[in-house]
Design the sequence.
């Protein structure tokens, strides 16, 4: 197995994916981006049929209303936060709503702060959808042309149409809840920014779709200043998604044959196109273990070798003690890192010295899918190599 990281460049991600899935013949490659982005990937696929991003950073400046859900933008995305603040200084009428159980630095700058009870996001946005339908804000022309299942969504959301009941469930004041709903209804140019508070939850995908549904139902999508917008939790989570560095994906957003059964007239076509392009005799035909399940499989001895790149799962994974026990039992643990001493390196049989951010040369892709060219400004120290070079040297040896 390979357990890789959003700290890798897209080129590193790509060759790791190619080696393991195309030539070694194992699909057990997943990334710490799974922890921050998998819910959005699944939500996008459920809503749009593809993992696509329906907005861009410029929309933050063009919107009249910014709704931040489970996002402490001030700390986690400080450049974006400064851009948002500069836009509000330029356009004082712009409103910001922050929805988060915690009062964060981001909440301190909000016009309206909703400290909802943890886990009640789906109810809140279902109630908003029901309110918008009742108040006549559904864009029926847009939904007729571009959407399916509107009535089913409205029927499902109708159980939260009583605002008093909803406010009590979310542990919010009725006045603040009503004010938020009214602002949303009256601002066609609305951007809903969501991040880890939405994604890292047991029902994260449902949270994502509850947000997207509100935008679809009102036609607030694909227009300047109007979109649901997920901001990623890793510097190159998006680059990894583009080259298939998730256990349930192939490169280029291509899908496994089993996923296309009954949908595509030739379900093997996507898989075959990649196999031919890579000239990969052992290209896997189905997905592998995702992050948490991967370490469970290592613990029970099913996976006997794991290569961990640019991440420290003994500290950062859920059920960290389980991860530590699994790696202690594993026959071969390889770690590529820039640090000599981490909790994960302590369990490694082989450690490769990799390059750090300032020493790397390649590309990353940000939340709006803009590709940035990154050039090294420090020389490689000692025997350190780029992750893609280490992977390629191993591939040549094999």
Sequence:
């Amino acid at each position: 197995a390979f357990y890789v990281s959003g700290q890798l460049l897209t080129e590193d991600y790509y060759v790791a994916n190619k080696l393991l899935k195309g030539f070694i013949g194992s699909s057990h490659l997943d990334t710490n981006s799974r922890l921050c982005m998998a819910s959005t990937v699944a939500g996008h696929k459920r809503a749009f049929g593809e993992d696509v991003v329906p907005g861009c950073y410029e929309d933050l400046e063009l919107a009249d209303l910014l709704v931040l859900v489970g996002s402490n933008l001030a700390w986690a995305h400080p450049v974006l936060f400064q851009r948002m603040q500069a836009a509000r200084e330029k356009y004082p009428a712009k409103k910001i709503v922050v929805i988060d159980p915690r009062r964060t630095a981001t909440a301190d700058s909000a016009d309206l702060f909703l400290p909802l009870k943890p886990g009640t996001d789906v109810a809140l946005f279902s109630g908003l959808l029901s309110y918008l339908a009742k108040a006549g804000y559904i864009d029926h022309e847009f939904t007729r042309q571009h959407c399916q299942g509107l009535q089913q969504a409205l029927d499902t959301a109708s159980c939260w149409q009583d605002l008093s009941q909803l406010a009590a469930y979310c542990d919010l004041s009725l006045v603040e809840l009503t004010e938020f709903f009214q602002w949303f209804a009256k601002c066609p140019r609305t951007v809903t920014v969501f991040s880890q508070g939405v994604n890292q939850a047991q029902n994260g995908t449902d949270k994502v779709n509850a947000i997207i549904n509100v935008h679809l139902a009102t036609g607030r999508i694909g227009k300047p200043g109007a979109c649901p917008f997920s901001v990623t939790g890793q510097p190159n989570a998006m680059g990894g998604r583009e080259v298939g560095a998730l256990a349930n994906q192939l490169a280029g957003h291509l899908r496994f044959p089993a996923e296309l059964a009954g949908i595509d007239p030739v379900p093997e076509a996507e898989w075959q196109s990649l196999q031919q392009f890579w000239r990969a005799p052992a290209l896997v035909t189905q997905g592998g273990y995702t992050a948490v399940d991967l370490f469970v499989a290592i613990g029970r001895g099913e996976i006997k070798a794991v290569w961990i790149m640019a991440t420290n799962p003994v500290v950062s994974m859920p059920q960290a003690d389980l991860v530590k026990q699994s790696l202690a039992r594993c026959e071969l643990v390889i770690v590529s890192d820039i640090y000599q001493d981490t909790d994960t390196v302590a369990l490694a049989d082989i450690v490769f010295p990799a390059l750090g951010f300032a020493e790397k040369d390649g590309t990353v892709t940000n939340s709006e899918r803009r590709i940035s060219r990154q050039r090294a400004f420090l020389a490689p120290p000692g025997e350190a190599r780029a992750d893609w070079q280490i992977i390629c040297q191993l591939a040549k040896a094999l």
The chain has a mean pLDDT of 94.
